[in-house]
Design a protein that fits this description.
Blueprint (H helix, E strand, L loop, with lengths): L15 H15 L3 H14 L4 H14 L2 H14 L8 H10 L2 H11 L8 H11 L5 H5 L5 H17 L3 H8 L7 H13 L3 H6 L6 H6 L9 H16 L6 H13 L4 H13 L3 H9 L8 H14 L3 H12 L6 H13 L3 H14 L6 H13 L3 H14 L4 H13 L4 H14 L4 H13 L3 H14 L4 H13 L3 H13 L4 H12 L8
Helix pairs in contact: 1-2, 2-3, 3-4, 5-6, 5-14, 5-15, 6-7, 7-9, 7-14, 9-10, 9-11, 14-15, 15-16, 16-17, 16-18, 17-18, 18-19, 19-20, 20-21, 21-22, 22-23, 23-24, 24-25, 24-26, 25-26, 26-27, 27-28, 28-29, 29-30
Length: about 525
């Protein structure tokens, strides 16, 4: 939640029930109970409408809850107090855009022009000029000398060219080789579908991405003000989605959804921000708004798994992924997602057939990464001969992929097979990715098992310095020290490794600390 240094103190209300509402709102807020928090903040704000401290909390919570009326009321209170946040104009902009009210939208845009969201002003103004029937070129050309503002104005110009029937010019303006953000690609395709330019739309949706595949069936949209505003805000929110969620992420996505309630991409981004912020129930409720027949249904299912996993609800995430993977119409993305979760849940044997399905479709499985995951699952499931074959195929398809080289080389060493040849694979991997501590450790371990512990030691020490909390690396280092007669350092390394050890590793390390390695044993 946003914290303001200028928050006013909580008022001493005469009615203890109002104070109770504020306290309940804070508690619900801390628990991620967004709807309950918003309801109680609404009561608190009604009792103290001029308190900016309550108003800002009510505003933020209302945006998370999707309560436009409360957010608007709280924003008005903040405006009156002169402390409205820079994103407070987004909601009135969205409401105006949904109604197609260009005049009201321009008033909101003027407010944005005075803050950090001024980079959106030229692009937004281009849309209001367009819906009035004018030529947006001048507005878009007025972008300040700012790379971000120029980028958004350029992208909006391309969409508006399409909206005005200049299809070839619009597509050319997007990017000569179609290397553009996916959200922009989708927006352009929807406009083209809306003007019956289906073939042109499908050229923008090339590839195996399941959302693109679904959209290629046709997803028409009209170039309304609501469409333009929502897609621009989604575009910005998408850029922010990779980092830590902020109040701005919520404000952008909620405004995008308000401007165009049919924008499922906004729902997914909103759910992502809510889930990362701990509002899990609200995030799942937002995802419930994506229709099962929506082109974004698959992306929504994937996001549901992310939200549940982030919340530590692994069993629920597995259940969602399983239901998706076992549908008659499931695709390689569904199988991949479920298999990954199974492996992370120590159920590699159950993951094997799903990784195999991915390979057999050829949709994702014709490359080294698919064979690597399949081979890794086989190895963890105790099916080494099959795993060795799959891992060899991964290396054959990716002879210069350090991860594939490392896995095959290390696994063969662990199984006592062709240590010399495996060491060469690992040396090649280390050359390709010299800063990868895991690969450095693998190479050092191969030298150690091959009888050259003197050469192994500096590599294992370097890996341990890079990843001091890696249990496996720490144990390897301890084994090498012991083999060279450095008993004190060996026990120190093993004790350090024991701190993060789990399962059988705890007992194994305890035995080594107590008894060391038997004579002639290197591990």
């Amino acid at each position: 939640m946003l914290t303001l240094a200028l928050l006013a103190p909580t008022p001493a209300w005469a009615d203890p029930g109002d104070l109770s509402a504020y306290v309940k709102a804070r508690a619900a807020d801390a628990d991620g109970a967004v709807d309950l928090a918003a309801a109680n903040y609404a009561r608190a704000l009604a009792a103290a409408p001029s308190n900016p401290g309550i108003a800002i909390r009510a505003y933020r919570e209302a945006l998370e809850a999707g309560d436009v009326a409360l957010a608007t009321r709280a924003a008005t209170a903040l405006d009156t107090a002169g402390v409205a946040p820079s994103d407070a104009a987004l909601l009135p902009l969205a409401v105006a855009a949904r109604r197609g009210d260009a005049k009201a939208a321009d008033a909101a845009i003027a407010r944005l022009a005075t803050g950090p969201l001024a980079v959106l002003v030229p692009a937004l103004t281009g849309w209001t000029v367009f819906v009035r029937g004018g030529d947006p070129a001048a507005a878009l050309g007025a972008a300040p000398k700012d790379l971000v503002a120029t980028r958004f104005a350029t992208e909006t110009r391309a969409l508006l060219l399409i909206a005005r029937g200049r299809y070839d010019a619009g597509i050319a303006a997007l990017s000569p080789d179609l290397r553009m953000p996916n959200d922009l690609r989708v927006a352009a395709a929807q406009l083209l579908f809306g003007q019956r330019q289906d073939a042109a739309a499908r050229t923008l949706l090339d590839g195996r991405d399941p959302t693109f595949v679904a959209l290629r069936e046709g997803a028409p949209a009209k170039p309304t003000l609501g469409f333009g505003v929502s897609r621009l805000l989604v575009r910005v929110a998408s850029d922010l989605a990779g980092g830590t969620p902020t109040p701005l992420s919520i404000a952008l996505t909620q405004a995008a959804l308000t401007a165009d309630p049919s924008c499922d991409r906004a729902r997914i981004l909103l759910a992502d921000a809510l889930g990362k912020g701990g509002a899990v129930a609200r995030a799942l409720a937002v995802l419930d708004g994506v229709d099962p027949d929506s082109p974004f249904a698959g992306a929504a299912a994937a996001e549901r798994v992310v939200v549940l996993t982030t919340a530590g609800r692994d069993a629920d995430a597995l259940a969602v992924a399983a239901a998706r993977a076992d549908r008659a119409e499931a695709d390689a993305y569904d199988w991949q997602r479920y298999a990954d979760l199974l492996v992370n849940s120590d159920r590699a044997a159950d993951a094997v057939p799903y990784y195999r399905r991915v390979i057999d479709t050829g949709e994702q499985g014709d490359g080294w990464a698919a064979w690597l995951q399949y081979g890794g699952a086989l190895d963890q499931a105790g099916r080494w001969p099959e795993a060795r074959e799959a891992l060899a195929k991964a290396v054959a398809r990716g002879p210069n992929e350090p991860i594939a080289l490392n896995y095959l080389g290390f696994a063969r060493v662990e199984h006592g097979e062709d240590v010399a040849g495996s060491t060469r694979l690992l040396a090649h991997a280390a050359t390709l990715d010299p800063d990868n501590a895991s690969i450095t450790d693998s190479l050092g371990w191969a030298y150690h098992l091959g009888g050259n512990t003197v050469r192994a030691l500096p590599l294992l020490e370097r890996a341990a310095i890079a990843e001091p909390t890696n249990t496996e690396i720490g144990e390897h280092l301890g084994d090498a020290y012991w083999t060279l007669g450095r008993r004190y350092e060996a026990r120190y390394a093993w004790r350090a490794a024991q701190v993060t050890a789990t399962g059988d590793g705890v007992t194994r390390l305890a035995t080594k600390i107590a008894d060391g390695l038997p004579t002639g044993v290197r591990r």
